[in-house]
Amino acid sequence: MGIPEEQLRKAATLAVCKINIDSDIRLAMTAGIRRVFNEQPEAFDPRVYLSVARSEVKKMVSHKIHDVLGSANTL
Asked: Global pTM?
């Protein structure tokens, strides 16, 4: 299920150099694929369900960067 967002926020304020969000990425991707298969059981083209999965990953990563880790525009 990943690390709770409140713990990630705290780690980011304590200058932790590396924070893994791989579990969250995998969960977002899988949720997108499952949603497509649930709504469109006939779907078999990976370009369809993987594009939805990719979109879900982008949204989740953007959320983590902006709303949780406070890392937007820090480079």
From this structure: 0.78
